Predict the 3D structure of the following.
Amino acid sequence: MSDQDPIDPRLEQAGASDESLLTAHEKLRGWKADDGANYRMLPLVLLFAFSGLIFYAGIYLNKYSVRYSPSAFDENAPANTGAGPAVKVDPLVLGKKNFESVCATCHQATGLGVPGIYPPLAGSEWVSGSNERLIRIVLYGLKGPVKVKGVEYGAAAMPVFGKVAGSGYNWSDEKIAATLTYVRASFGNTSPAITADQVTAIRTKEGDRKEWSQEELLKLP
Amino acid sequence: MTTAPHAADNAEVTEVDTSARCALLLLLAFAVLWLVVSGVLALVNLVQLHTPALLADCSLLTYGRTHALQETAFIYGWAANAGLAVALWILARLGGSPLRSLNWVMAGTVFWNLAIALGLVGIATGDGTSNAWLHLPRYVLPMMLVAYGTIAVPGVLAWSGRRHETAFAAQWYGVAALFLFPWIFSLAQVMLVFVPERGVLQALVAGWFVQGAWTLWLAPLALTAAYYLVPKLSGRTITSYEFAALSFWTLLFVGAWTGGRHLIGGPVPAWIPTIAVVSCALLLFHYIVVALNLRAAFSGGGSTVMKFMALGLGAYVLGGFIDAATALRSVAAFSQFTYFSTAQTQLALTGAFSMLLYGAIYFLAPRITGQPWPSVVLIRAHYAAALTGTVGLVIALAGAGWIQGHDLRDPLVSFAAIAAHVRPWLLIATAAQAILLFGNLLLAAHLVRLIAAKSAAPAAGLFRPAPAMEAPAS
């Protein structure tokens, strides 16, 4: 642009030819070594500005995206952290799960056991009878002969399930209570539920001990 | 100022310009025609806002239809035609060879504008859709897509056959705009008009389309003109040019994600507006770099083209910052769904886009016609009208929007009271729109005179050989 003559708006003259415009900018592209260590402020300022924007964007996104939930329409809704009240577990559901994964191996899914080896649970006087005896069998196990529904069994031993010394399962009192509740409500059995507190009471009373025998159990109420 | 080595390199007008004369003038003539049509309709539309009785009995021109008509005529008539003409011309000049298949460009231009004329009649008679920026009836849309292709392909060819392997910033923006529009436009056609999405997704696609058509099509077209003309007129290289590429890619990657800002406060999952708020903030980097790159436009000088550039770039950058500010939810609570959003759109369209394109047209037309514009007064008057009209329109609508936003939050203020409160502001906006229309009529008359005038002097003699650009400071 020349300084001497005024610019005619009807016919604006170019300040540079296209060819030189392209070549000049071609030279500007690409990395130039900063030999004299003359740090230019502008690139640094822009770097910080862009980083600042990205930082702000990250914080904002984290705070107001409500975990990208498709059903959250309020950006201030508290994100679901999983810290809500614990869900109540149905003992029959938990008990069924435990029974099918462990107990059914010997007592069978039908609860009928295997004649001559594993005693049945269906209609068993041990199941629907005394709480005290039943809980003790599962907590500490049972060794030696046992008479169920008039038939003598003795080939196999009931393992130790409770959180006691020598236990292979370490089931919690809740787990045992749920499993027993399930067994007492299934296979035609209609006995009342067993609570975790009842199991805890017996476990604290007995402490650590060896497996029960039929004689010891029959002395209990 | 150094003397160039040989004439071929620095001749300002070459075969590139003369060969494209007819095609580009056809595009520009249609552009200015639709600009005037859109201006008249916009004026009627604004008057209807404060005097609802106007044309209320004429079903062709009720408020809703004049709104759709002026918007369509502006975007697909003025902006598309003018933007394509300028982008084609700049891509051809920087590519170094005349545009190819210009007959196809002219055929495409005729069909594109035929489709718009048909579309406007369709909207007026009730065939229009309810989508913002896509009111056109369904039967003209496929034809527009094909016509666009025939116009845009020579521009892409000019870029792919360029002599300098390293493309210049103006070329990036031009080619990106040419390429991206068919994608945005065809997707919006399918998802909004032919097989409309349902529920929340429809609002999302509509927001994405409006924002995409601006950030990925119209804004790059306007930046093509700015990145070419500012260094071309000033004779100096772009400052901090090394950041231009990062700024370009920021616009391309983040731009369309800001679509959700139209849905803040709307019934969409919260994370969608949140992404848009964040993208608006990230896009500030693009605006900062554009302002840095092209700050030579603001350093004054007597060039009228440069004054248009300065206005357009100022509006563009300001618009970016206002978008980011109103995207914040606490601000959007006042500005969203009011006249303030309209003011933002006007700042972008008439402030940024039109100003940059006016400047480009004043620079381009003498080069392709081979003669100067007939009148200095008309150019200066158009500049003054465009400046006062845009400033008045944007400020009046923003004021109206702010009052409306505050009033709407107060349950004790009735709708009738709100309408009375904003009425003075809308009257100012109407006056500003009239001034804009007057300026655009001057441009139209001037362009007719330029085309009609017989060439007096050979084109080559009019333009001084352009000097070589100063070597970049090390």
Remarks:
- Helices of chain A lie at 18-28, 41-64, 91-107, 125-128, 131-140, 173-185, 196-206, 214-219.
- Chain A touches chain B through 51 residues (CB under 8 Å).
- Residues 11 and 152 of chain A are 118 Å apart (CA to CA).
- Residues 40-76 of chain A form one domain.
